[in-house]
């Protein structure tokens, strides 16, 4: 078995579909980036999964990039040792070649469909696509409403936070984590992804898979809406200034601004936000050798003014109820979008030559075997 990690390069957010696909593999670090083109139901995920299975059997460490529209579908993989990415390049991701031939390659699965048979369903496909877009618009409107509630929670927790105590906590962590590290003239790189996603099946996360190789794991317990990002950003900047690459995983509600989780692979340190939407017990995140992992529990509730929290207790309770209601409505409409998309897929599946697609996957496997 190979080492594997699972996360989302894109997400459903109050801003609509939010993409960090550009962070998957940089042009200079990549040996090959393969962009898969084709319509719904054309076998992109199956194609990607087949290649992943081939290299997983050989022990290649693999990152599995999940789809926020359907968590069980893959939008891509990264073969980490080979520095190869295979990515679904269709809407809404729209990943296109940047350095064609030298780095990027396009594979068009549309070459293996029966165009006449698909065209016969033109009006139905267009109607279903429009219906699918409508469900997404409704879902994103609910998410926008949820974000307003989230901001109110954030406002309350900001006013309750005991900043001086938090700064002491952060200073102690930085001193401990970076004890043997000096400031570097070469800044580290920052990659951005999502560890969890809002899907038609609810809020889904794969956080434990990201922590297997981490030696020191900080579990930061905090309520939904608590401003952990400033805490995370200070620690992240400390790593970057010391020449360390980091992986930052962002909040679905504030995708461009709020870091929820942080990995610093160079020193095996991880910082994970826990709340009721991604809650875990320490035993759930233990790697293969538990004795090599140190798990530190931090409770940010201990660093808030208790009297102020008590004063706003009824409001906090009400806001959490409203937030849950709006998020549930979001999920229901995302599920309607998913079900509608599956109907579109059913128009393509019978009209695809999957035998030829499977043969093509084997050809790609042979090509990638040559990359050291």
TrEMBL record:
This is ATPase. It comes from the Bacteria. InterPro entries: P-loop_NTPase (IPR027417).
């Amino acid at each position: 078995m190979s080492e594997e990690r699972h996360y989302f390069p894109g997400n459903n957010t109050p801003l609509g579909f939010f993409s960090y696909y550009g962070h998957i593999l940089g042009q200079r670090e990549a040996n090959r980036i393969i962009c898969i083109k084709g319509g719904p139901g054309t076998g992109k995920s199956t194609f990607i999964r087949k290649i992943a299975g081939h290299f997983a059997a050989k022990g290649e460490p693999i990152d599995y990039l999940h789809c926020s529209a359907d968590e069980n579908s893959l939008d891509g993989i990264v073969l980490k040792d080979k520095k190869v990415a295979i990515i679904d390049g269709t809407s809404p991701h729209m990943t296109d070649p940047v350095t064609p031939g030298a780095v990027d390659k396009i594979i068009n699965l549309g070459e293996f469909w029966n165009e006449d048979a698909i065209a016969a369903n033109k009006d139905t496909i267009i109607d279903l696509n429009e219906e699918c877009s409508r469900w997404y618009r409704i879902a994103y409107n609910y998410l926008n409403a949820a974000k307003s509630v989230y901001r109110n929670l954030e406002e309350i927790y900001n006013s309750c936070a005991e900043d001086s105590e938090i700064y002491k906590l952060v200073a102690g962590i930085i001193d401990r984590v970076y004890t043997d590290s000096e400031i570097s003239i070469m800044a580290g790189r920052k990659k951005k992804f999502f560890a969890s996603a809002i899907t038609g099946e609810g809020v889904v996360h794969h956080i434990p898979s990201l922590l297997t190789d981490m030696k020191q794991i900080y579990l930061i317990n905090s309520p939904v809406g608590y401003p952990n990002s400033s805490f995370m950003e200070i620690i992240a900047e400390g790593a970057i200034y010391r020449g360390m690459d980091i992986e930052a995983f962002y909040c679905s509600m504030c995708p461009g601004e709020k870091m929820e989780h942080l990995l610093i692979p160079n020193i095996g340190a991880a910082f994970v936000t826990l709340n009721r939407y991604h809650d875990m017990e320490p035993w759930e995140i233990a790697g293969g050798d538990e004795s090599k992992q140190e798990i530190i529990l931090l409770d940010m509730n201990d660093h808030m003014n208790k009297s102020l929290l008590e004063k706003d207790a009824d409001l906090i309770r009400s806001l959490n109820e409203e937030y849950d209601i709006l998020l549930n409505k979001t999920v229901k409409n995302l599920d309607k979008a998913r079900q509608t998309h599956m109907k579109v897929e059913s128009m393509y599946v019978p009209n695809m030559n999957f035998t030829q697609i499977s043969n093509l996957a084997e050809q790609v496997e042979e090509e990638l075997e040559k990359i050291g």
